Amino acid sequence: MSTITTADGTEIFFKDWGPQSAQPIVFHHGWPLSADDWDTQMLYFVSRGYRVIAHDRRGHGRSSQVSEGHDMDHYAADVAAVVEHLDLRNTIHVGHSTGGGEAAHYVAQYGQPQGRVSKLVMIGAVPPIMVKTASNPDGLPIEVFDDFRQQLAANRAEFYLDVASGPFYGFNRENSASSAAIIQNWWRQGMMGGAKAHYDGIKAFSETDFTEDLQSISLPTLIMHGDDDQIVPINDSAILADKLLADSTLKVYPGYPHGMCTTHAEVINRDLAEFIAG
């Protein structure tokens, strides 16, 4: 396996496919998944001559199930460690959901200051902030995320099955074409990771305020979001993020769910390719 060990001793697994000299695309996965969630996109872009990289976040997939560090600062530092180990430059960073927050935090804190990044893509992403606060009165109540924690602690396997078979892919919508294979793959990825990492990660994706990160990013940024996203509501995320970024394009997908990279991969891959090549 390809792994690096970070400064705090955490082993991070990553995939690195394609020519070493090709333009790199780094993919950041969502909670509680792994780099495997990007297989469709990685195969698509490696076949078109790009170098594609995806890592398992600490506590997720094949990376170390460490007790601490399940926050955006550590997530971004872990990405920086992988990027610097591979010496990636002129890189496009693509993040989904929690990975969208991780990508934005990495770009703002490391990638843009180091001159390593050319573009950013956030898909169904959590920025600027999900939870309801005094400064974000339209956010989701903290009780929503407390319920996530309660369900995870009580029966993680059942909770993950419910998320994958219901709101994540929109399989709870009338006339939706549910896929047992997609549900099982989501569940498989989730159960590979550590319960504590996933439990702590709920706070990381819901309570982190990315406002300053977004305001500092000057690179071309594509925001992709389905307007039937039941996990990260578009009005609380993409619409607001678009207003904070200096050079952003917002692309809204009518009726698409949170997991649209899987359910509508052909469309998402095409639009990603257009933005990356443009």
TrEMBL record:
<dbReference type="InterPro" id="IPR029058">
    <property type="entry name" value="AB_hydrolase_fold"/>
</dbReference>
<dbReference type="Pfam" id="PF00561">
    <property type="entry name" value="Abhydrolase_1"/>
</dbReference>
<protein>
    <submittedName>
        <fullName>Non-heme chloroperoxidase</fullName>
    </submittedName>
</protein>
<dbReference type="InterPro" id="IPR000073">
    <property type="entry name" value="AB_hydrolase_1"/>
</dbReference>
<dbReference type="InterPro" id="IPR050471">
    <property type="entry name" value="AB_hydrolase"/>
</dbReference>
<feature type="domain" description="AB hydrolase-1">
    <location>
        <begin position="24"/>
        <end position="261"/>
    </location>
</feature>
